[in-house]
Amino acid sequence: MTYIFNVTMREREGTKVEGLLSYRGEGYGFYSGPEWGPKLLMDAWSWGVGDNDKLPAKTIADFEALFALFMGEQIWVDDQGYLLDQDTKEPLSQRIQAADRHKDELGSSSGFDNGYHYVMLKPRSDEFRRRTGEIIKSFTLSTDDDKQADFIIEVYDPRHLAHLDRNVDFKTTFSGLLP
């Protein structure tokens, strides 16, 4: 896995968190769109940064949904491409091919996890942007050089920051851009 940025969440107060992005390479630059905000918050959560026990179930569901929008949803199928129940991984009573149900949504990735086959749906960037507008009130990024940038994420609901403690650090593979 290639990490692009080191991330430090420095200070959280109310609905705002301040932090620092440090580029781990050269010449990449800093994307300044609001999509950076939820990606940093959900990535911190996914790596167990901060105190995830403080997160309400609704926030965890938000982060899981954001990941599915950004990365593409994982759909369980049998070895012939028929959909399985997404919770039990048992065959559906009505056999439906993933290619028929999800026609233009199928991505190019597939794999196995715990003995079950899955296919990935395409990322949904437009929906990710829409959800960003529901969660992120503002995202500002300021930089004096090409190696570091300060940022401030302001959310509408402080529950999206509940897992972040002062001075938590993690690395991210996210660049800020959407697929």
TrEMBL record:
Q: Which organism is it from?
A: Glycomyces buryatensis
Protein name, per record: Uncharacterized protein
Q: Which superkingdom?
A: Bacteria
Higher taxonomy: Bacteria, Bacillati, Actinomycetota, Actinomycetes, Glycomycetales
